[in-house]
Amino acid sequence: MATPLSPQQQRLPSAFAFASPRHENPARDMCPKQKKRLLGRESVGEIYKELLTVERRRLSTRGPLALPDEVESDRSRVLYSSSFRRLQGKTQVFPLDENAAVRTRLTHSFEVSHVGRFLAASVLKIFKERGELDKVGLGPDEAAAFPTIVETACLLHDIGNPPFGHFGEQAISQWFGRNLNDLTAMAGCVFADEHADLKNDFLNFDGNPQGFRILSRIAGADEFGFNLTLTQMAATIKYVCLPSQKDSTTALKKKAGVFFSEREALADIQKRFLLKEGQRFPLAYLMEAADDISYCLSDIEDGVEKGIIKFDDFVEKIRERTSDDKIREFFPKNDGSVSPVERVVGIRSRVIRHLVGEAAKDYVNSHAQICAGTRDELIESSSPCGRLLQVIKEHVRESVYSHEVPQQLELSGLSIIEGLLERFRPLLALKRENFDALLSGGGRKLKLDRELRLLGLVAKRHKEAYRIEVGKGVSDQAEWALRGHMLVDFISGMTDHFSLRLYQKLSGIRL
Q1: Catalytic residue (choose from 85, 450, 453, 497)
Q2: Rounded to a whole number, what is the distance in angstroms from the first to the last CA of the chain?
Q3: Contact between 212 and 241 (Cβ < 8 Å)
Q4: Which residue of the set 158, 201, 268, 302 is catalytic?
Q5: Which end is more exposed in the chain, N or C (fewer Cβ atoms within 10 Å of the end residue's Cβ)?
Q6: pLDDT tens profile 179-232
Q7: Please, what's the largest Cα pairwise distance for the chain?
Q8: How far apart are CA 151 and CA 113, in angstroms?
Q9: What is the CA radius of gyration of the chain?
Q10: In the 8-state DSSP scheme, what is residue 334?
Q11: Active site (annotated) includes residue 354
Q12: What ranges make up the beta strands (E) of 133-248?
């Protein structure tokens, strides 16, 4: 039988207590002073005294610590987690690659975290040179914590990516698009219009909201995930909206950043920091910029390592593609005076130093806009730095992403993820009472031997996350959505190789 809920768990409302509640508005029930601060954040002095907090959604069992120690605790919770370690087996560009020199999501995340820390330190340096550290509330503790928060946000930025990267995301969303209506009908819980929020979590599956789900719900010992500080959680949200709030015309809402299932965690963050709907937390701009700076050059280096392109050809293409002398200066012609390795390292170092320096200045110069949430991105596409990144991205897209080697492997990944979802399909077709019996060990009496074995493959922590939420009392539609999340959590958390092996075993291809 399922373990009974603790008194604390029984008191907590379920994320699925009802199908389509009114979305939380952080401005609701605020006093006049709070509303003034919300609407005029750029006028608030010592802003980081408010934004950098030790508060967590659940009190830590070890008691409170000073801010620098709390953010180090956040960082350690991520670094020592199995969810983070599994990134070593997930695709950056080249799936299932045996060459250790080619980047995985883990090595990419470490590189982004380095750039993020460098960028945050550069911001602090500029504030200090201008004598503005105290003015913006960056005292000794806040200044010590600031780079670590950005670094940890960067470590987390890809933690929700499924096997095979963006093709894995497409496989999950497209599979549910084809099958969700049939499965819910078979399970006896057809989704009506009022259940659209539940449905959209699957039709709009993406690594960003899945990452937030991991850190806020399923990665830790209970339903609070890593139980990070609210500051750290806020710094990881790149797109501040639920799937139903997506807006392709708005930069900060063009993708979902949080699933409906985690809307309460988002509401807690918005309420604590007085963020308007769609308003990004300031430090998330630094995390996004660090990723933008890192991945283009990294993907070029991996293309060189795989023999898809030659570095000198890449440099020449960049020089041909732009007439901007400032951009061309970063990519000098090969005069034979340095070794190939020195040439690659030299160009990468110059580009990163320049982009970090300019992004740090933009952050400080646009600080009022960033704190007010009126800036779309830190490195704007129309800026010189934005044009430099765009030139590199265009060449990467044409020369690396479009090459037959990654494309063939990505198509294989698409088949693997869709195949796994098909193999686990019987669990989603069960009626609620039958799945309850299955979870309680009564599957054999109902002659559900296949389903019992499939459920046995699902990691215990995912079944526990399902059990906790269902135990709080939910509708049949919400129960099915929790079941769907349980399976997606399991499959999206796999490494590339594990998903391949499990697919082969379940398909009878290998034993």
Answers
A1: 453
A2: 32
A3: no
A4: 158
A5: C
A6: 999 999 999 999 999 999 999 999 999 999 999 999 999 998 899 999 999 999
A7: 77
A8: 5
A9: 24
A10: -
A11: no
A12: none
DSSP 417-458: HHHHHHHTHHHHHS-HHHHHHHHTT-TTTTT-HHHHHHHHHS
Domains delineated in the chain: 24-190+204-273 (1.10.3210.10), 295-400 (1.10.3410)
Out of 75, 108, 213, 343, pick the active-site residue.
108
Please give, one letter per residue, the 3-state secondary structure of 176-239: HHHHHHHHHHHCCCCCCHHHHHHHHHHHCCCHHHHHHHHHHHHCCCCCCCCCCEHHHHHHCCCC
Amino acid type, 351: V
Cα–Cα distance, 435 to 448 (Å, whole number): 10
Instruction: Find the catalytic residue in 197, 206, 291, 302.
Output: 291
d(CA 216, CA 395): 37
Q: Amino acid identity, residue 438?
A: L
- CB of 27 within 8 A of CB of 209? no
Helix (H, G, I), strand (E, B) or coil at 135: coil
Contact assessment for residue 26 and residue 267, using Cβ atoms and an 8 Å cutoff: yes
For residue 96, what pLDDT is reported? 72
Q: Are 315 and 347 in contact (CB under 8 A)?
A: yes
List, in sequence order, the alpha helices (H) in 215-366: 230-235, 263-273, 282-305, 311-321, 325-329, 340-365
Residue matched to tokens 């390795």: 341
Reading the block at residue 504, the tokens are 């082969």
How far from chain centre, in Å, is Cα 14? 23
Q: Are 146 and 120 in contact (CB under 8 A)?
A: yes
Backbone angles phi, psi at 484, to 5 degrees: -60, -45
Rounded to whole angstroms, the Cα distance separating 433 from 196 reads: 23
- The CA–CA distances, whole Å, from 21 to 80, 197, 232, 310, 334 equal 36, 9, 26, 55, 61
pLDDT at 391: 84
Please confirm, yes or no, whether 114 is among the known catalytic residues: no
Element (H, E) at 151: helix 140-156
Length of the chain: 511
- Among 157, 213, 280, 461, the active-site one is 157
Q: How much is the pLDDT for 62?
A: 87
291 among known catalytic residues:
yes
Between CA 253 and CA 181, with CA 489 as vertex, the angle to 5 degrees is: 75
Looking at residue 91, the DSSP 8-state letter turns out to be B
Residues of the chain with pLDDT under 50: 1-44
Q: Which residue has the tokens 């630094």?
A: 286
Q: How far apart are CA 438 and CA 434, in angstroms?
A: 6
Q: Provide the pLDDT for residue 293.
A: 93
Question: For residues 312 and 224, what is the distance between their CA atoms, to the nearest angstrom?
Answer: 49
